[in-house]
Amino acid sequence: MHESVKNDKDKLDIITIDGPAGSGKSTVAKMLSRELDLKYIDTGATYRTLTLLALQNNIKPNDEPSILKLAKKSKIELESNPKDESQYTTVRLNGRDVTDDIRSSKVGAAVSIVSKLSGIRKYLVTLQRELADSGKAVLEGRDTGSVVFPNALLKIYLTAGIEQRVRRRELQNVQKGQKIDAKEIETEISTRDSIDSSRSDSPLTVPQNAVVIDNTNLTILETFEKIRDLYNERIHSKN
Ligand code: DC
Question: Which of 173, 175, 200, 234 gives a 20 to 30 Å CA spacing to 66?
Fold first, then answer.
């Protein structure tokens, strides 16, 4: 994908963070949203919501025409509340709060199949751009820097070693009161990464001109500070 603008002055005050599962994207994006007063957009939540919609209606996750038909009649809303850590993003599907439902293992298992479908991607990319219409936002996902906002002021590719990513997921699960075997988490993460990286439409990849941060040996706070400082430098040189 070509950059639509070359000059920082013309770039949007947007940070995109892409990377594999468990790389710390969500945690860091929320911290950036709070500190820099940016709207937080969890693009994965939009794919999860359409996956939930398909499952609730007994539609197979690869049945693109049926999912799309239903999606076009549905309303997906993301509401971010940076001040409230436990309710950071409320996701609504047709007015109903589905924030927890989209994190179920059933949705987790099917979301990579739904997110391979080009028509679905096109539909959701339009929605994600609309959600960020004010221009001051931080987006996280798999293609936010390569496809959704290639002209963002700062594009980050966040990654970490698989062992570290599994450990982080384990900790998140413990905090939620769930105990899932590490081997099971590793299989889930590796399977999802391989599907996300090998799909033909918008695969997980390092976006053009992105800053790559491997945070295997960094704390979340150090990762956040690195990105915050980069963003502040770019905003400073832009203005
Ligand atoms: O970030 P997450 O685990 O909630 O994302 C769930 C799935 O959605 C992920 O496996 C791939 C897909 N996804 C995508 O294809 N493109 C995005 N920009 C974000 C997520």
Answer: 200
Contact 51 CB / ligand 1 (< 6 Å) = no
Distance (Å) of CA 138 to CA 8, 23, 29, 149, 176:
17, 16, 6, 10, 25
Fold of 8-230: Rossmann fold (3.40.50)
Closest CA to 162 of 191, 190, 132, 142: 190
- The domain spans of the chain are 8-230
pLDDT level of residue 127 (50, 70, 90 thresholds): very high
pLDDT digits (tens, 9 = 90+) for 60-97: 999 999 999 999 999 999 998 777 766 788 999 999 99
Looking at the whole model, is its pTM more than 0.90? yes
Calculate mean pLDDT across residues 110-118.
Answer: 93
Amino acid occupying residue 219: T
The first and second tokens of residue 82, run together, are 């940076």
Short-list 58, 56, 36, 40, CA closest to 48: 56
Most ligand 1 atoms within 8 A of CB, residue of 196, 197, 201, 202 to mutate: 196
